[in-house]
Write a structure and sequence with these properties.
The chain folds into two domains: 183 residues, Aldolase class I (TIM Barrel, Alpha-Beta Barrel), CATH 3.20.20; 95 residues, Golgi alpha-mannosidase II (Immunoglobulin-like). Helix content is 21%, strand content 26%. The chain contains six helices and 14 strands. The strands form four sheets. The protein has a six-stranded antiparallel sheet with strand order 7-8-9-14-11-12. Helix 2 links the parallel strand 1 and strand 2. The longest helix has 18 residues. It starts with 13 loop residues before the first helix and ends with a strand. The model has no long low-confidence stretch (mean pLDDT 95).
Length: 306
């Protein structure tokens, strides 16, 4: 029998979790399997609304036949009626339904970092393809931000504390390159404790007012700028080839800016966890030079100087 979605599992004090989260201004999402949800949606969604749940993370959808597309529509409509957001994680690619139902926040439909548990397929060469392919369809739940960064030679697939291919700065850049109103970091909480690079993840928005393509070559490298309010963010990544990018800054417009730059350290090609963090005063008339290590990247936060 499928699990009963109207009752928390043994040992789970969900009421206390929801109460504590609410006191901290944090919304709680519940993970549900689509098979269980299909038969219990009409009972579960009203209850989730009553509990104060923010949304549902739906996994295991590996089909895009007519019946499953109908199931998607039914889930989104029922969720909207009960003020619930939806993340279709194990899913087919988005089809624009979020224009009708904006509570359909994001979709998986991508070979994200979770696949590193079994293979080396999610890697910098894969990442540089996605802005030109999968991202064209809509929001993507890639779950970036892995901090156990290793080189290709060091990589071993494993379930416990999985390794992440490419540099840490590459991972930071994905939060700008891969658009998703709900971003979920890939690593365990302990991986970010005391790590200065996590400051960028804490600062970067998840929704944007403007996007600019800066430079790129399909399957080789890409740099994208996105704006939220007066602040701009840039993400730039490369494949396994080290390269220097000269990124134009004319998108910033008039005024003076300070740039918080998270980039590959000089030895990041050998030690991928090493990142350089610096603050620069920017002249928009000059391109920004970024030196990217193999599998590397850069993440930049521009904010007005005054």
């Amino acid at each position: 029998m499928p699990p009963n979605l109207t009752k928390p599992g043994p040992g789970t004090d969900l009421a206390n979790v929801l109460s504590f989260a609410k006191s901290k201004g944090v919304g709680v999402w519940l993970t549900v399997d689509w098979n269980s949800l299909d038969s219990q949606m009409d009972e579960a969604f009203p209850l989730f609304e009553k509990w104060g749940v923010a949304g549902v993370f739906i996994d295991g959808v590996e089909r895009d036949d007519q019946w499953m597309i109908g199931f998607y529509r039914r889930v989104i409509q029922r969720a909207a009626e009960h003020r619930l957001m939806v993340d279709f994680h194990g899913a087919f690619k988005p089809d624009g339904i979020n224009r009708t139902y904006p509570n359909a926040i994001t979709h998986g439909a991508v070979m994200g970092l979770e696949y590193l548990k079994t293979s080396a397929r999610p890697n910098p060469s894969h990442d540089v393809m996605l802005p030109f392919t999968r991202m064209l369809a809509g929001p993507v739940d890639y779950t970036p931000g892995g901090f156990n960064n290793v080189t290709a030679a060091e990589f071993v697939p494993r379930e416990k504390t999985p390794m992440v291919l490419g540099t840490r700065a590459h991972q930071l850049a994905l939060f700008v390159l891969f658009e998703s109103p709900l971003q979920v970091v890939a690593d365990q909480p302990e991986a970010y404790q005391g790590q200065k690079e996590f400051d960028f993840i804490k600062a970067v928005p998840t929704s944007w007012e403007e996007t600019r393509f800066l430079t790129g070559q399909v399957g080789e490298y890409v740099a994208i700028a996105r704006r939220r309010g007066a602040d701009w963010y840039v993400g730039a990544i490369t494949d396994w080839t080290a390269r220097t990018l000269n990124v134009p800054l004319d998108f910033l417009g008039k005024g003076n800016y300070i740039a918080d730059v998270y980039s590959d350290a000089a030895d990041a090609g050998k030690y991928p966890k090493h990142a350089a963090i610096e603050q620069r005063r920017i002249s928009v008339s000059m391109p920004l030079q970024l030196n990217l290590a193999p599998g590397g990247g850069a993440a930049i936060h521009f904010h007005p100087a005054n």
